[in-house]
Amino acid sequence: MLFNSFQYWIFFLIVAVLFYSMPFRVGKLLLLCASYVFYMWWDPRFIVLILTSTVVDYFLGIWLEVTSGRRKKILLAISLVVNLGILGFFKYYDFFAGSLAGLLHIPKSSVVLQVVLPVGVSFYTFASLSYTLDVYWGKMKAARNLIDYALFIAFFPHLIAGPIIRARQFISQIQYWRRPAAIMIQSGIILVLSGLLKKMVFADRFAVVADSYFSDPAAHPGWLTAWSGCLAFFMQVFFDFSGYTDIARGCAKLLGFEFPLNFARPFLSRNPPDLWQRWHITLSTWVRDYLFMPFSRGRKGRFVLYRNMLVVMVLVGLWHGANWTFVAWGAYHGLLLVGYRLFDRATVGTAIDRVMKKRYIVPFSVGLMFAAFVLSAAFFRPKTLQTSGYVLSALFGFQHVTGEFLLTTGTIVLLFISLFLAVAQERNQFIDRLALQPARIQIPAYVCAFLALELFPATGPVPFVYFQF
Amino acid sequence: MYLAVFVGTLHTMGAAVQQSGADTDEEKSSGAPAITANPGHVTVAGGAGSTEISWDTGNGSMGFVFVTTSEGKPALFATGAKGSRVAPWIRPGTYAFELYGDDQRRTLLAALTVSGTTESEASPRTTLLRGKARWLLIVALMVVVYIAFYLSSAGTLRTTFPTEPTTSPRPLHVGRNLLMGIAAFVCLDGVIFHTGLYVSILAPDSYAGRLAVITRAEKQRPASGLKEVLVLGDSRMAEGFSATVADELGSAAGFKFVTLAEPASTANTWYYMLREVDATAQRYWAIVVPYGIGYEPTSAESLRISMAAPLLRYGDCFTFASAFQQWSGRFRAVTACILRGSAYQSDVAHFLEHPIARIENVQRESAMVHARAVYKGRDYDMVGTSYDATTGQMTFPPRLTEAQREAIRKSLLQPSQSEMQYSLRLQRDWIPRILNRYSKSATAIVLTPVPRGPFAELPAFSVGQRAPFLEVTKQRTVFSLPEQTFDFLERPDYYFDAFHLNAKGRQRFTERLVNDLMARLAAADSHASYP
Questions:
Q1: Cα distance from A198 to chain B (closest Cα, Å)?
Q2: ipTM for the complex?
Q3: Structural domain tally of chain A?
Q4: Are B381 and B496 in contact (CB under 8 A)?
Q5: Could you list the residue range(s) of the whole structural domain that residue A301 is in?
Q6: Are residues A166 and A232 in the same domain?
Q7: Measured distance CA(B168)–CA(B106) in Å, rounded
Q8: Does residue A227 form part of some domain?
Q9: Segment B320-328 long-range contacts (CB within 8 Å, at least 24 positions apart)
Q10: Domain boundary residue among A150, A177, A204?
Q11: Backbone Cα Rg of chain A
Q12: CB B1 within 8 A of CB B238
């Protein structure tokens, strides 16, 4: 049941109508059931994993709150083992077993189990982990209502591909739920439309270009081809994932819940740290709060800091998928972060630093960061490091061929439309503020959105990219 | 009867029009189809080189030249029976140019490969100018991007990003605005797509465009004052029936023949075409409706929706949707009836990318109608071709080109039982609707079988042409020609593939149909009066 399918919207309409027609204490049970139905639509077998994770962490959370010392650590360890065990087995077993078999020259087929990846496992595992860690650190009280906790884990708008929500943000919303105000509904509608446009009109069109290149990069030599293919791919990923997030946030708002922001015009980033404040924000803040900070706290020395930064980014890469290409992608971004830190540290207070902060230089920083990010598609999309190497050699012009510019007129127009909208949103929340605009602006905006959805979607519902993670 | 996927659109393509040598009857050459490039090996200097592609289908039928670049995606390069066109964008690499007999790339007639290699010579002046213009455009775009980034970067680096507003200074009218937005959208869609506004600029070489063009031409055609007989049908009738030949035979008896047979059309499309061209149900003396074997792939649902779209009305939602097997198809059919634009998605995108080329194509609409009228059929046959259904082995006579053999091979792919059943179901559902429409009219409806093919013994071609409309033929104005009427045509010398009659078959089929038709109508005429 894809967000961009008619089926989903029928489902959502039924759930919303029923939800608002009953008292909230019954309504939240309905939302939970609907969420399980939504999940089982993909593959009913894996509901067992969610239920296991939910029940284990719910009871562990209560025990964590009332215990202390060594026992508390054991309880936390149990939670980590269960959650990371599920994630590790289903997502990484084949990868590590296969890699080990390769090292030991054992036939892969003898160790690989062809495990099927449960959809959304990376997202709900992280949500669940954040809960037990917060309770362990005393940042929040344990949930005392199993329904509330189960709904936090399984709430269907975020279940499959995030945003990764935190228990302390969400459970309190369940406890103090109120019928959403008109502005919230209005924002929800705008977010849903914006998400559908991003997915169906933008992402799926860039996908055609990206697929044509990455289906066989060797058949498309040349630096121009490689850059345009990589650019199309990251445009596809951005619009696909941020479109999904918008729809998820919009649906949550329509049901009276708030999800955190996940994207904030990442292609306007000026440097690597800025990028990670804008791209997949809920993941980057999660790894910051639950990985980087705990491991860096109390440790001195820049080397340790940089090492941790690198390790965390490699883990972020690995979170995206069990493949060495994702490890390389994470390492590449880790090196960008470390490199930028070193550069920043070396130039702080100097003339270079002052020039870099000049407003007329900023566009060059943005352009450079954008290029650095697009370059990382060479690791993100290919299935093997060998292909990544080929794409990189093309990007750096080692093939001595110019190649074709793959972007069509239509996709170039979309690029400039998105640039205009991003700048307008960055400057004065142009899109968000549509919710406050009078009818003479809102109605034409609706008409334009509906027309674009009617006339320019790719054929048929195309799955979201981040579902595979 | 979705047979266009096999052969397609030969005579209808008036898009005959894009090439420099638009054909006339006299100019038509006969012989093997050919495609050539001059030069075949392009030296690329200054970014791109050029070559002139010339093609000829050999028999005056419509041809489609596709080019496959290194991207691997074939794109339509030119259309027409014969002509030449310059490809000025040859870059280092290879380009496959293929001449097809249909726009679905089923019937390959001829092919060639053009290769481009770099050379370090100084660029010609035109190339230099073009290169300069391109760089100028790139610089302009970079400036726009720079300004955009500049405008977005006011102030210090942001570390927090505000979310949507949570309060409003004034009351909001969420539901009202949304409903008004939806209403305005539906109205706008209606104005653009339900009126003739957009239909008039549909790509004339698309299925929907062709259907719109021929329907419009027929609607606007003044009455001839003769006994007008309209022939409907899919690609088999389009290939098999010649209105010109029929007029030669029937004019003495006061008959005038008109054909709206169109590849890929189905019985439901015919119903809507009739409603469009004959609003009063009194215009024609007789209407010929074919029935019999055929098949309808489910994958062609989108095509059928977009094809019928120019003829649909708001009120057709449920009847039109009932013609589809899958719920997704029914949903899209309902949507297309209400929001017509949804049926023209690819057409609109193409129009926005190439508006000038589209307008030029639309302006050549009359040439397309003319090309359709003068089409004579294919001049090769399948004599000497044999097919063993159990082993799949085929043997061909030496005179057939590889492209023609490939087309025959493809046409012999056996459709599934469900696809054939679906085709029959469409006929059973929609031909009675046509009959009902004329139940109170004096217009005679003539149900005619069509010859099954040169391999009628094959399972897919030997389904009995049971007249599924036996009951309705009891109506005074409905006739059914005997099922065996065209059995004599089921021979390889009358076909150019497994389904479609060639020029010789076209002549014989038309003669027999017209003679039988006139005899039946004359017999009926003695008992009744017609308009």
A1: 17
A2: 0.83
A3: 2
A4: yes
A5: 183-468
A6: no
A7: 60
A8: yes
A9: B320/B268, B320/B272, B322/B429, B323/B266, B323/B268, B323/B426, B323/B429, B323/B430, B325/B298, B325/B422, B326/B298, B326/B301, B328/B301
A10: A177
A11: 23
A12: no
Residue A218 lies inside a defined structural domain of this protein: yes
**Residue in A closest to B149 by C-alpha:** A363
Q: Which two tokens stand for residue A263?
A: 């994207």
Closest approach of A166 to chain B, Cα-based (Å): 17
Q: What pLDDT is stored for residue B22 in this prediction?
A: 31
Q: Is residue A1 a part of any domain in this protein?
A: no
CA distances from A422 to A24, A442, B208, B341 (A): 37, 19, 37, 28
CB of A166 within 8 Å of a chain B CB? The answer is no
Provide the β-strand partners of residue B231: B259, B288
What span, in angstroms and rounded, lies between the C-alpha atoms of A3 and B19?
Answer: 45
Alpha carbons B215 and B201: distance in angstroms, whole number: 14
- DSSP E strands in B261-388: the ranges are 286-291, 386-388
What is the token pair recorded at B57? 């289908």
Shortest distance between the Cα of B138 and any Cα of chain A, in A, equals: 12
CB atoms A264 and B169 under 8 Å: no
Q: Which residues pair with B290 in a beta bridge?
A: B448
B12-41 confidence digits (pLDDT tens): 333 332 333 333 333 334 456 788 887 777
Same-domain pairing of A248 and A374: yes
Question: B69, A404: Cβ pair inside 8 Å?
Answer: yes
Verify that A13 and A148 share a domain, yes or no.
yes
My answer on whether A15 and A91 are in the same domain is: yes
Q: List phi, psi (to 5°) of B501.
A: -70, 145
Closest by Cβ to A189, choosing from B178, B185, B342: B178
Whether residues A330 and A188 share a domain: the answer is yes
Return the residue of B nearest to A219 by Cα.
B70
For chain B, which domains are there? 34-118 (2.60.40.10), 202-301+374-525 (3.40.50.1110)
Summarize pLDDT for A56-82 with one digit per residue, the tens.
999 999 999 888 888 889 999 999 999
Considering only CB atoms, which chain A residues are within 8 Å of B348? 455-456
The 8-class DSSP code of residue B222 comes to P
Give B369's contacts (C-beta < 8 A, 6+ positions apart).
B14, B213, B214, B217
* Residue A129 within any structural domain of the chain: yes
Q: Which one of A153, A177, A201 terminates a domain?
A: A177
Structure-token pair, residue B462: 């030997």
Element counts in chain B: helices (H) and strands (E): 16, 15
Q: How far apart are CA B21 and CA B28, in angstroms?
A: 10
Q: Which candidate in A158, A220, A280, A320 is catalytic?
A: A320
Contact B275, B437 (CB under 8 A): yes
| Nearest-by-Cβ selection for B180 from A402, A435, A439 | A439
Q: Is A333 a catalytic residue?
A: no
Per DSSP, chain A holds a count of helices (H) and strands (E) of 23, 0
pLDDT digits (tens, 9 = 90+) for B344-393: 888 888 888 888 888 888 887 777 777 778 888 888 888 888 877 777 77
Same domain? For A153 and A240 the reply is no
Scanning every residue of chain B, which has its alpha carbon at the shortest distance from the alpha carbon of A439? B177
B-chain residues near A179 (CB < 8 A): none
Q: Is B408 left (phi over 0), alpha (psi -120 to 50) or beta?
A: alpha
Provide the 10 A C-beta neighbour count for residue A176. Answer: 7
Domain match, A117 and A251 both: no
| Separation of alpha carbons A229 and A217, rounded Å | 9
Q: Are residues A342 and A459 in the same domain?
A: yes
Other C-beta atoms closer than 10 Å to the C-beta of B314 total 11
**pLDDT tens per residue, range A311-355:** 999 999 988 888 899 999 999 999 999 999 999 889 888 888 888
